[in-house]
């Protein structure tokens, strides 16, 4: 003879689940799903901060490795020369191609403003100051970010998905010292040199436009060139170019080293590196200009 089991709390005497059982399970599942969605949302919220901290750590490692390689005489000179020549070869013509139309626009805008306020004799001074402090380092940085930075990111990303970087580490060859440091130093050297070339061609373009299109005497233009711009402005331009070059290299290298999705991931990393570089360069240019204007003063930040 069999004895009937007592009914469970989640079932009625007939063996069917109690009316509140499904409700309790659905509430539990809803709570778990909400917790998972909240965690995913928090991860997406903190991801930019994680990216920023990763870039800062990589920049610190690169600067430390540069000093260490110079002190121990292990700096890869051959790699540095190869990267310098490559950066010069791919960045010079695009930078000059951008500097000329930029100079035309700048000369027209400054010339029209100078005529309206009756300060035509200061057209050369305004053009030169704007070129030296702002236009030249920004054009150089944008070309480095779009051309050299994308090449660095693509090269490191390709090595990453082929496990070449891990192989170098296994063989005892530090990736930062062997690959990243020469690229950073090469980008800085090219940025400083290219900044001067872009500056010369942009000023020459503003002179040509002012003389040909606005009938400004070339003597009056050249006489006012050094009225506002001086040697401190030139040093500011060179320092900006060097800082922007370091930023471009660090951001591109950081995105390249984090590639993990095959060839598609390499393309996504290059696009992300260029976009982040552009945004970071404009923000850094604004910050440096404001700091310089606050400390040293001057007619234009």
Concise overview:
It contains nine helices and no strands. The chain has 301 residues and is mostly helical.
Structure description:
It is built from 9 helices and no strands. The protein is an all-alpha fold and 301 residues long. The protein has helices at residues 21-71, 77-117, 123-161, 164-170, 175-212, 218-223, 225-228, 231-257, 262-296. The protein is 82% helix and 0% strand. Helix 3 (123-161) packs antiparallel against helix 5, helix 5 (175-212) packs across helix 8 (231-257) and helix 8 (231-257) packs antiparallel against helix 9. The longest helix is centred in the N-terminal third of the chain and has 51 residues, at 21-71. The chain is elongated.
Class derived from helix and strand content? mainly alpha
- Give the quaternary arrangement of the chains: single chain
Overall strand count: 0
The SSE string, one letter per element, is: HHHHHHHHH
Q: How many DSSP helices?
A: 9
User: What is the mean predicted local confidence, pLDDT?
Assistant: 82
The major pleated sheet works out as:
none
Q: What Rg do the Cα atoms give? A: 29 Å
Residue stretches low in confidence (pLDDT < 50, at least 5 long) are none
Shape label: elongated
Distance between the termini: 98 Å
The portion of residues forming beta strands comes to under 5%
Helix proportion: over 70%
């Amino acid at each position: 003879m069999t004895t009937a089991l007592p009914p469970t709390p989640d079932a009625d005497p007939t063996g069917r689940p109690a009316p509140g059982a499904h409700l309790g399970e659905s509430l539990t599942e809803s709570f778990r799903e909400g917790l998972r969605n909240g965690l995913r949302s928090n991860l997406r919220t903190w991801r930019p901060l994680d990216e920023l901290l990763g870039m800062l750590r990589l920049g610190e490692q690169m600067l430390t490795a540069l000093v260490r390689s110079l002190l121990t005489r292990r700096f890869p000179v051959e790699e540095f020369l190869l990267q310098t020549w490559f950066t010069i070869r791919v960045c010079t013509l695009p930078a000059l191609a951008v500097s000329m139309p930029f100079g035309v626009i700048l000369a027209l805008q400054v010339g029209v403003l100078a005529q309206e306020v009756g300060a035509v004799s200061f057209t050369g001074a305004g053009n030169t100051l704007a070129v030296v402090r702002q236009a030249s380092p920004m054009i150089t940085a944008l070309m480095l970010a779009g051309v050299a930075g994308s090449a660095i990111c693509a090269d490191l990303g390709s090595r990453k998905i082929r496990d070449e970087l891990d192989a170098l580490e296994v063989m005892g060859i530090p990736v930062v010292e062997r690959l990243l440091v020469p690229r950073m130093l090469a980008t800085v050297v090219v940025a400083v040199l290219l900044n001067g070339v872009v500056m010369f061609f942009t000023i020459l373009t503003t002179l040509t436009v002012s003389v040909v299109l606005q009938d400004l005497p070339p003597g009056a233009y050249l006489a006012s060139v050094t009225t506002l711009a001086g040697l401190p402005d030139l040093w500011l331009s060179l320092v900006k170019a060097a800082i922007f070059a370091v930023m471009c290299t660090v951001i591109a290298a950081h995105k390249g080293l984090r590639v993990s999705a095959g060839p598609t991931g390499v393309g996504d990393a290059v696009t992300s590196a260029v976009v982040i570089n552009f945004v970071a360069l404009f923000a850094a240019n604004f910050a440096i200009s404001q700091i310089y204007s606050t400390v040293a003063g001057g007619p234009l930040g």
